[in-house]
Design brief:
By secondary structure, this protein is mainly alpha-helical. 48% of the residues lie in helices and 5% in strands.
Length: 126
Amino acid sequence: MLDTSVVIDLGRIPPADLPEEASVSAITMAELSAGTHATDDRHERARRQDRLQLLESWIEPVPFDADCARAYGRVYAAVSAVGRRPRRRVADLLIAATAMAADMPLYTRNATDFLGLEDIIDIVDI
């Protein structure tokens, strides 16, 4: 599963660093959708919209379902156990829970966002 950070940087990541088959969480799609509205620069907004539309045409997102909700409890507990504040990174942790429920490694450009999860999710820092 690709974290939002990977999707944003896809053009800068060597293909050899990416999995042969990729998926994204519906949470990543939500972050990208919101991101198009998070800038006042019309050119940047257009780039973000293009990225979102390309991804939408390329892949069907993994939904956040009841299995993901249960996995989120474990993710929340693991992050709390290492002294981190889970509420500061809700979207990241929901993506991690989706990867966990789907039994997929999570590819990210920001491995520090997932500290404390190494024992329950395969985090791949690229």
